[in-house]
């Protein structure tokens, strides 16, 4: 029996295993335990691979696995760590050799083929390709300094050498992606996590724009920092300009995208007065139907985008807001929902994940990646929400250095008068009615996938 199994390709063995009952699966796995080529008992390992992209030996091993089992790998996540440094010094500096901060094997996995080309497509059954760049917590952990900033140009306590190295790795990773042969125009979802405020030269290339024009499912999250309670990335003019530049660098070229998940940083939420804008461009995404926004302001910029998108391309099938708050200096939640009703925005699916507006100092050190929340976000417990006295919180960007603070008086008022909740219920009645009218289209409801960074 073992000899017969030896003649079967791993993909066929996995299909056989999926059709067996539990007892038969165990027997098959036991039979194949010594068959290294079959690797049936390692199905979970090879189906979803997450690895440190800067470690050459690790990347080489992953490349060998993907070449050996091309039809098995469905999810591939490259985690890019900060460059090493000389710890113990007052001002650590990067310690590395040569300009290639990412090994060739990692870049080959992003391209979907090796160079020089051997004609083999890597992971033709890939469903998700993710690149996670380092967040603020990763930099602080690497440098051993909880008070350091990486990209905030107005802060004297910075580490610009590490920002330059990070930018170089971003350029190398995006350059490889621009040449990718992975099926991003089909079933593969592309995710770029913790994208730093760096206007990469790759953004101006034809290959990059052609890649974006093929992507159908995109997940994008932003890097952000908070060094003290009142000093965040939102106070940095360069940061605000880089986020605004995503309109031309990314969102204006997503001609085929149908599903978009875009998340600001928990330290620097987007769309608030005085902070980084929400850089969405409706005319650049004519096929967009499913939109999820995280760490954003539920206010004028979202309303403007929805109206522009409906005018240019028709209504969204679904809108999800993850960890959104209203701007204390703008309309409150009740105004947001009332304006959606008056604008007659045609949405047939709406969901909101609430959070407390409070951002604890050095939140990265408490929980770096947000558990099951969006990348670089952090879930707040129900008890914490009740303590905030408002399930529809408000906050604002305040001061010269972009501090993000809650509006306690408005939150208390919201919990007392109930206007926000009442407006939400009225809006949901309109959503339900629109969904009923759209039932003839045999629409299957969009179930917002969690911004999970645990894959």
From TrEMBL:
Signal peptide: none annotated. PROSITE patterns: FBOX (PS50181). InterPro entries: F-box-like_dom_sf, F-box_dom. Residues 432-455 are annotated as: Disordered. Pfam families: F-box-like. Residues 439-455 have a biased composition (Acidic residues). Gene3D superfamilies: 1.20.1280.50. Residues 2-49 form the F-box domain. This is F-box domain-containing protein.
């Amino acid at each position: 029996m073992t000899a017969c199994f030896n003649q079967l390709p791993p993909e066929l063995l996995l299909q056989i295993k999926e059709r067996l009952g539990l007892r038969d699966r165990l027997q098959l796995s036991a039979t194949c335990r010594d068959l290294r080529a079959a690797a049936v008992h390692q199905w979970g390992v090879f189906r979803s691979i997450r690895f440190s992209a800067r470690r050459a030996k690790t990347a080489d091993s992953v490349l060998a696995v993907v070449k050996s089992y091309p039809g098995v790998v469905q999810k591939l996540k490259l985690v890019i760590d900060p460059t090493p440094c000389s710890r113990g010094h007052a001002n650590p500096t990067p310690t590395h050799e040569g300009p290639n901060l990412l090994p060739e094997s990692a870049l080959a996995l992003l391209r979907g083929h090796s160079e020089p080309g051997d004609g083999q497509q890597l992971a033709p059954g890939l469903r998700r390709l993710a690149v996670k760049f380092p967040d603020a917590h990763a930099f602080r952990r690497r440098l051993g300094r909880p008070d350091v900033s990486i990209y905030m140009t107005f802060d004297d306590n910075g580490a610009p050498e590490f920002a330059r190295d990070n930018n170089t790795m971003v350029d190398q990773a995006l350059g490889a992606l621009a040449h990718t042969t992975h099926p991003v125009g089909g079933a593969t979802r592309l995710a770029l996590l913790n994208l730093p405020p760096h206007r990469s030269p790759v953004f101006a290339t034809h290959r990059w724009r052609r890649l974006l024009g093929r992507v159908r499912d995109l997940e994008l999250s932003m890097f952000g920092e908070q060094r003290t309670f009142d000093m965040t990335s939102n106070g940095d003019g360069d940061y605000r300009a880089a986020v605004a530049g995503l309109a031309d660098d990314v969102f204006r070229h997503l001609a085929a995208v149908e599903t978009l998940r875009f998340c600001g940083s928990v330290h620097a939420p987007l769309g608030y007065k005085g902070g980084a804008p929400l850089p969405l461009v409706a005319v650049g995404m004519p096929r967009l139907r499913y939109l999820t926004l995280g760490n954003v302001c539920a206010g004028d910029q979202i309303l403007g985008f929805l109206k522009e998108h409906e005018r240019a391309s028709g209504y969204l099938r679904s809108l999800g807001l993850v960890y959104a708050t209203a701007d204390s200096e703008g309309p409150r939640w009740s105004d947001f929902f009332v304006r959606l009703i008056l604008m007659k925005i045609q949405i047939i699916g709406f969901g909101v994940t609430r959070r407390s507006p409070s951002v604890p100092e050095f939140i990265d050190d408490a929980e770096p990646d947000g558990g099951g929340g969006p990348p670089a976000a952090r879930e707040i417990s129900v008890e914490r929400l009740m303590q905030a006295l408002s399930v529809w919180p408000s906050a604002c960007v305040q001061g010269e250095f972009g501090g993000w603070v809650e509006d306690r008086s408005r939150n208390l008022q919201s919990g007392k008068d109930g206007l926000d909740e009442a407006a939400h219920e009225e809006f949901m009645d309109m959503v339900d009615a629109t969904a009923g009218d759209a039932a003839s289209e045999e629409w299957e409801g969009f179930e917002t996938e969690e911004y999970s960074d645990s894959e």
